[in-house]
Amino acid sequence: MSELGERAAALDAADELAGSRKQFVIEDDVVYLDGNSLGALPAHVPGRVEDVVRRQWGELRIRSWEESGWWTAPERIGDRIAPLVGAAAGQIVVGDSTSVNVFKAVVAAARMAGEDRDEILVDATTFPTDGYIAESAARMTGRTLRPVTPADVPGVLSDRTAAVLLNHVDYRTGRLHDLPSLTAAVHAAGALAVWDLCHSAGALPVGLDEHGVDLAVGCTYKYLNGGPGSPAYLYVRHAHQDRFDSPLPGWNSHADPFGMRADFEPAPGALRGRVGTPDILSMLALEAALEVWDGVSIEAVRAKSLALTDFFLECVAAYVGEGRVESLTPPAHERRGSQVALRCPDAGDVMKRLIERGVVGDFRHPDVLRFGFTPLYVGFADVERAGRVLGEVLG
Amino acid sequence: MSELGERAAALDAADELAGSRKQFVIEDDVVYLDGNSLGALPAHVPGRVEDVVRRQWGELRIRSWEESGWWTAPERIGDRIAPLVGAAAGQIVVGDSTSVNVFKAVVAAARMAGEDRDEILVDATTFPTDGYIAESAARMTGRTLRPVTPADVPGVLSDRTAAVLLNHVDYRTGRLHDLPSLTAAVHAAGALAVWDLCHSAGALPVGLDEHGVDLAVGCTYKYLNGGPGSPAYLYVRHAHQDRFDSPLPGWNSHADPFGMRADFEPAPGALRGRVGTPDILSMLALEAALEVWDGVSIEAVRAKSLALTDFFLECVAAYVGEGRVESLTPPAHERRGSQVALRCPDAGDVMKRLIERGVVGDFRHPDVLRFGFTPLYVGFADVERAGRVLGEVLG
Fold first, then answer.
1. pLDDT tens-digit series, residues A117-152
2. Which residues, at least 6 apart from B344, have a Cβ–Cβ distance to it below 8 Å?
3. Which residues bind pyridoxal 5'-phosphate (chains A, B) (predicted)?
4. Which of residues 56-95 of A touch B (CB under 8 A)?
5. In chain A, what residues touch B228 (CB-CB under 8 Å)?
6. Which of A200, A367, B56, B118 is at 20 to 30 A from B225, Cα to Cα?
7. Is A221 marked active-site?
8. Tens digits of residue pLDDT in B26-39
9. SS3 state of residue A175
């Protein structure tokens, strides 16, 4: 065994999260480093989905809205996600896509900021949907959208700024932005901070309550393993809930949804972020998937995540010829999410060959190899193998 | 056997759709008349969902976006719904909730109508979410919302009207509105017609293309049996697609979604109605559920639906004491959907007792018993039993 192989074995032996892997369906001959795109299947989810379909839908039918807890699923599952992102209960509802939740959050933030603040800032390096949706939110609330890099945000904030939409971790490079200090800067300017947690929730502590974040959104199919296209979530800070004025006031956000009243009276609390009938099959698959977090601390996950990405960078340095790849991921821990992005010529072709050899990451146009490290099911031997195979593929 | 019981047996024997019932999971001792709230489970759906979860997600993981057809599911399933609502292919995408699709449709319609048309009309008798969402769409496009009853629409239309949002079948009374003539009246005023098909699609012919409907939305968990909270759909007429300007331009509606470009360029065609990552578990359960329509004509469904509701009204007249209930559902076939709504004191309590005796309808505040008739799995003996049990419960 190589020295790195021995190191990996020792790290795995000491890994307090190593036992989590058996809760997931992953073949032993596969190194799955694409959990930042689609989390692996928790082994108990198929049985739970079958129960939802066969018994709850097939036998109980409409009774399940009450008896199987369908109606209250959005807020119940929100409360299950809450501790993972540092939120007290009663501030998160699950439902709709991330894009739709970005729209709710940015529009609501702009409205709370008041009419005289006419600019919305958006992370210019963000996953594109956030930019497109923020542009629509700006257009429909009479604001101007201004794309800026996160580093430039403090210098651009002014008394014209209504809201700022930022990504916690950049989807491409894996850069972790400084949520506490950026949120504080936004607040100092009198504006509201909206954070997109797609690439951080479930991989590192977020601290929404602690850092005073106003609104946040995130998906659940990456590090939360909710399944393909599983519903996203919306966080509305307690202090803002009474003023949260949704652009999508569906009947599920009404104070008396079954009253079928012609006039709209918003529900109290986080329920105000709901819209239409919740998508039960996907939502309850997510609820089941979240059970893998029972007894797991997000701090332990973060510690292992950093150890995994450190070790991967070390393996890449050892196995891959000098100058063949360039890391886009910040070396400093405080600026790194749970992925490593390597720039490489022919990245699309290289990723195909990696996948053929059982190392699954993904390719991001035009030249990025992206490797995501999910601490609940990726081990150090996986990491050593990924680095070694990458070295072999790059010859 | 009573005379009505004999009639029911004869009607069932002659029913060309009687064979469809075996495709659904319904116990023999249950009369399920709530398919207009949640359609029954098609028997082959659990196995298909299991394959999606265990193999497509669990084994293929991200490869399924291409290999299992996940990415193209919204438009593929839209094309499967299209013939049921009289639409040619390429005009429907599936995704999001009905409420979210109402928002897209009404905002886009107002934008297409032009700035000088400053009023949006909405069916005052509609399911409330449509009114709430239309109010938001009006507010965010600088229009005034004006609620009117469908009968009053022709008299209220003017050169100020931008768009009109109407329900095809009223959720409460089961009244079927005259889609062809109302659409023609809206067009004569130079406005756009948006129809909500939640309570008509799958129960009767809609004729979207034939009648020149501009935009339409609908849910899939009622007569289309897609499962609890299954994704809704959006129809955008071919002629309008190039001008369809979505308020929710997520990355899935981009011409080059994986280009991850900062500038938004809308996709051609119906894809423009997509928003975020599609919710695969629910969406593919719906796709499987739609197979029950193979070889079924919506005209045959309509003929049976009217025969069922006629027969139910006849049974109610025979079994229920004079004056105990009052039908809110229009007697004329051309004004009747696929449900019967009976006003009755203590309707909530009456419905509980019906359900205890195996006759499942639902209660709508304050005094309505609602019975939905799904021709694919409700037979005439069911109807006779429902009428008889109602008579017994009302003593």
1. 999 999 998 778 899 999 999 999 999 999 999 999
2. B324, B325, B326, B350, B367, B368, B369, B394
3. 98-99, 127-130, 196, 199, 221, 251, 277
4. 56-59, 61-62, 64-65, 70
5. 56-57, 64-65, 70, 277, 279-281
6. B56
7. yes
8. 999 999 999 999 99
9. strand
